[in-house]
Amino acid sequence: MAIKATVHKATLQIADMDRNLYATHQVTLAREPSETDERMMVRLLAYALHVPADDHDGALAFARGAADAEEPDLWQHSLSGEVRQWIEVGQPDERRLVRAAGRADRVLLYTYSSAAHIWWAGVQNKLTRLNNLWVWQLPAAQSQALAELAARSMQLQVTVQDGQVWIGNNERSVEVHPAPLKAPTSKY
Fold this sequence. Notes:
The protein is α/β, with parallel strands linked by helices. Helix content is 23%, strand content 38%. The chain has a domain at 29-152 and 178-182: Restriction endonuclease-like alpha-beta roll fold, CATH 3.10.640.
């Protein structure tokens, strides 16, 4: 019998001064048996950094990601069905990112772990032509510290200012500095 996903619930109080977004979101995450707390928390961070101010152009939602090769970790569909944002976490195959770039207006990738720079060196040249791809690297120590915030039920405050992110609960806080590895020349 297959092991089922573990359900985690989080209340995110977001104060994103860079986007002038102040909101509280209740989210439910399914953590697949093969997924680590670190990866789940990076998904949650990506959600907090890209959730739209309103749902007029569709809501950002957790997709099946690791459980389905055809879906990202998060995505936003417009009300007419187009994929506005396709968000991946980890070190996906470059062909997956190329396919995503053909399907979505905007593709975002958050890579983490101490081996991320080695992975990036191997795929960087293959992804340069993708004009709708953004790639950020989270330092391994910071993504591991995020994992320590993981719980089945979480109350988290997320503050973003000048590209710096603080995420924490009542007991501890983690400062995260996403480093841009690739950004298109034109703004989204």
